[in-house]
Amino acid sequence: MDFFRNYRFPIIVGLFLLAALAFFSFKAGRKAVVEPAGRWLMEVVGPAQRGMDWAGDWMESLWRRYFSLVQAAEENEELKEQVASLRQQLVDLEEMRLANQRLKELLKFKETLDYPMVAAEVVGRDPSGHFRTVMINKGTSDGVKTLMPVVCAQGAVGRIIWASPNHAKLLLLIDPNSGVDVLVQSSRARGVVEGQAGGRLNLKYLIHTEHISPGDRVVTSGAAGVFPKGVLVGTVSSVKKEKIGAFQQVEVEPAVDFGRLEEVLVILHRRQLDE
After folding, report:
1. Which of 95, 111, 127 is the last residue of a domain?
2. Which residue of 57, 125, 243, 267 has the fewest C-beta atoms within 10 A of its own C-beta?
3. Which domain holds residue 229?
4. Is 5 among the domain residues?
5. Is the C-alpha dihedral spanning 170, 171, 174, 180 positive or negative?
6. Do residues 130 and 246 share a domain?
7. 239 contacts 212 by C-beta, under 8 angstroms
8. Do residue 99 and residue 215 come from a single domain?
9. Do 164 and 208 share a domain, yes or no?
């Protein structure tokens, strides 16, 4: 009883509409007769029917718009994924182009040296920062051994200080523990290049009488058979002749950009070279 009392009006209206629909269904197969009750029912039911039709059309339109928005959102996500994929493909292609260019330069440089070599990629760097070393992806199984010199297309890089079957550690020229016998190309003055802080090189043991100028090229001398003779080490960047002391203070800008080093050549055979 409480339910009927609470929903009395909607129930009565619903029953009335059902009765009206039943009445018109009953009259549908019979001869049309204009009756006052029928006209009255049509006046009441007609607007309600139009309202229901309008509400149905509105709901259908709303439903279609909703699905259109959902479909558009899905298509938008697919397009975003396709754009991201194409961008990554462009990045990969550019990396392949640059790697191919570097390898061509490396191969061209390799042809200038008459020694067996193996190409390697830099796969790691010293995380402590105490030493200027890098790890390469070639080791003893490829013929790489300690003390072997390492070069790249730009010039001398360093030497191997440790090797395992598949990897090796390379001490760079810019490490303070590194030292290479060199020649000043123009004057033929001899000295030793050592690494220093800041990524530069010191050219040591050049006496005051040697004529050295900024811009002079410094190359390996071939002494001790570590590096082949004539490999570019760097360019003289500054020269100081102190009044006290027998040697000049010479700084050298490395030929190799060690911060961007990616591929190298390990010279597999060491031999005593003509000086």
Report:
1. 111
2. 243
3. 117-267
4. no
5. negative
6. yes
7. yes
8. no
9. yes
